UniProtKB/TrEMBL annotation:
<protein>
    <submittedName>
        <fullName>Sugar ABC transporter substrate-binding protein</fullName>
    </submittedName>
</protein>
<dbReference type="InterPro" id="IPR006059">
    <property type="entry name" value="SBP"/>
</dbReference>
<dbReference type="InterPro" id="IPR050490">
    <property type="entry name" value="Bact_solute-bd_prot1"/>
</dbReference>
<keyword id="KW-0732">Signal</keyword>
<feature type="signal peptide">
    <location>
        <begin position="1"/>
        <end position="19"/>
    </location>
</feature>
<dbReference type="Pfam" id="PF01547">
    <property type="entry name" value="SBP_bac_1"/>
</dbReference>
């Protein structure tokens, strides 16, 4: 679903290239592997381009890629250079679409499983990975998120998410509070916190993907309780976001009225630092920021709870989703090496360290590390039936709501203006994807 520092970061991890090596055209990797295994012959050199919009995990990816480079050299006698491009989440989708449309596809790129796989697959941008070894290691609960309607696995899931909002468990415990189950209860919690001079919410709207988080929570809650056909209706140009007006704006207004100042100047990293420092008791954010939060305050005790969107407690639900997933371009000239890397991401031994370092949920049978407390807490809601699958809202609509809610917070758009923009964005999506 992520969440990033500003700008585009590029990392170049370059293995030693042997003198006299020619560039790889993607057709002789198997020969290179045979030569490498016999200990004779000239090593092949391959430049692998990766596009992953998670710059906060730059160090973790750098380290893991470096180990892959060593392994590929040892196993197949292939010298691999990796160009890792890490744009911000706000810019990544548009940059990637432009690259794919102009036949400049990275060999490996990250996409959002729920939001982007359908349209990317239809456009022919995703390699069929069904027969790759990693597929057999995926958990049964995770595999459907990266599987197309015709049964093909087209990505490797990195992040599976159980989320709502984050709350400071210490602040809640010290003030005798528990996560509210209705909007009225949430209002009472905010009043109790303010009475103790504690700011209820951290606000961080500099990056548009953050305020848009209220949308899938609101739509998911309403689809589970009152309007199960909402997405289907929108896909047929028969629905409208006016049906979701109260679910979206009642809680969003409550958060904004009880939050930290200068929200449009605070991005994800600064928001994480503010939450870690106790400057707000709650944060509209998912646990994908756990690593960043704990880097600021390793002792912070925080939890995950479902966000109330109305006074119907049945609509207060944890969102279940698979977001960041790795795909391979069908046009890659280095497809064998790209596939080797994807399979290494779920390596039986090395994978645990990578996923644990980034504090991701387990996605594979090879993941044996102990679950984190906030994951365990979210799972209790899921087991109690208090969850909903992330609604399949087009990424272009989520982009629009992010910008719209930024403008709404700044007083530049009305509620009705935002809802009309969302309806228009979905209709535009339908025209292109019918």
């Amino acid at each position: 679903m992520n969440k990033m520092t500003k700008g585009v970061l590029c990392t170049f991890l370059t293995a030693t290239l042997l003198a006299g090596c020619g560039s790889n055209n993607g057709t002789n990797n198997s020969n290179a592997a045979e030569e490498g295994n016999t200990g004779s012959g000239t090593a092949k050199s391959v430049t692998l381009k990766m596009f992953i919009a998670q710059p906060r995990f730059k160090e973790q990816y750098d380290n893991y890629i470096a180990e892959f480079v060593k392994k590929e050299k040892a196993d197949k006698n292939i010298d691999v250079s990796v160009q890792l491009e890490m744009p911000t989440a706000d810019n990544a989708s548009q940059i990637l679409k432009t690259r794919l449309a102009s036949n400049d596809a990275p060999d490996i790129f990250a996409i959002h499983a729920v939001n982007e796989i359908p349209s990317y697959y239809k456009a022919g941008y995703l390699e069929d990975l069904t027969d790759q070894p990693f597929v057999g290691k995926l958990l049964d609960s995770v595999k459907p998120s990266v599987t197309t309607t015709d049964g093909k696995v087209v990505a490797l899931p990195l992040e599976t998410l159980s989320w709502g909002y984050l709350y400071n468990k210490t602040i809640f415990a010290e003030n005798g509070l528990t996560p509210p189950t209705t909007l009225t209860e949430m209002k009472a919690v905010t009043e109790k916190l303010k009475a103790k001079n504690i700011t209820p919410f951290v606000l961080s709207y500099k990056e548009s993907w953050i305020p848009q988080l209220v949308l899938p929570l609101a739509v998911g809650g309403m689809m589970k309780t009152a309007d199960p056909e909402f997405v289907n209706k929108m896909n047929k140009d028969e629905g409208s976001f006016t049906e979701m007006k109260s679910a979206i704006f009642d809680v969003f207004d409550l958060i904004n009225a009880n939050g930290t100042a200068k929200a449009t100047e605070v991005g994800g990293d600064d928001g994480a630092a503010a939450f870690a420092a106790g400057k707000g008791a709650m944060w509209l954010m998912g646990p994908w920021y756990a690593e960043t939060i704990l880097k600021s305050n390793p002792d912070l005790d925080f939890g995950v709870a479902p966000l109330p969107i109305s006074d119907n407690a049945d609509a207060t639900l944890i969102n279940l989703s698979a977001s960041t997933s790795l795909a391979v371009s069908p046009t890659s000239k280095n497809k064998e090496v790209a596939l080797d890397f994807l399979n290494y991401v779920l390596d039986d031994q090395a994978s645990n360290g990578l996923f644990q370092a980034m504090k991701f949920n387990p996605v594979s049978t090879v993941h044996t590390y102990e679950s984190y407390p906030w994951i365990t807490e979210a799972t209790t809601y899921v087991k109690a039936g208090k969850s909903v699958q992330d609604p399949a809202i087009p990424q272009s609509v989520k982009d629009e709501v992010g910008k719209g809610l930024q403008a709404y917070y700044a007083g530049q758009m009305s509620q009705d203006d935002v809802l009309k923009a969302l309806d228009k964005a979905w209709k535009s999506y339908n025209k292109v994807n019918k």
